Amino acid sequence: MATAKKAPAKRSTTRSTAQPKDAIAMLKADHKKVSDLFEQFEKTRAATRKKAIVAEICTELTVHTTLEEEIFYPAVKAALKDKELVPEANVEHASVKDLIAQVEGVEPDGEMYDARVRVMGEFVKHHVKEEQNEMFPKAQKTRLDMVDLRDRMMARKNELMAGR
To answer: For the chain, what is the radius of gyration of the CA atoms?
Structure first.
């Protein structure tokens, strides 16, 4: 019995067009991207490249924090009736925003620049760990529609990125 040979399945070569399955997957993907950018910064010596990486970090963090503060956190806070996780996350965001203001648009001309970026990286790393180990598991146990949240966050992200 002859069998027809199937053509190999086509794989998408662009990851950016793949939509995350839900809001938490979207936020985790953002976390990974920013973490990778901080790693690139640490490996880079050229000032112009550092400045470009930091500009991308600042953009990614600014958009990400806006999505969380405007859409994700209010939904989680209401669903969990939370009085600790979300307020603490907002305080952490304020600290990161202060560090963004200190490095955004500044020339990478010395130790203080690198130190500020490294401290920002440590703040972000701590914040990501708390979100992924505490907030996200609790949020997943709620009745929140994570696909709807993703859709709302994607739409807002597109608006924010169009303005940059």
So the answer is: 19
List, in order, residues 6 or more apart from 76 with CB less than 8 Å away: 82, 85, 86, 135, 138, 139, 142, 144
CATH code assigned at 110: 1.20.120.520
Backbone angle region of 107, left / alpha / beta, with phi > 0 → left and psi within -120 to 50 → alpha: beta
In the chain, how many domains are there?
A: 1
Query: What number of CA atoms fall less than 13 Å from residue 128's CA on the CB side?
Result: 18
Q: Is the pLDDT of residue 138 over 80?
A: yes
Domain of 128? 23-162
Whole-model pTM: value is 0.85
Question: Which pair of tokens denotes residue 134?
Answer: 């505490």
**Does the pLDDT value for residue 15 go beyond 90?**
no
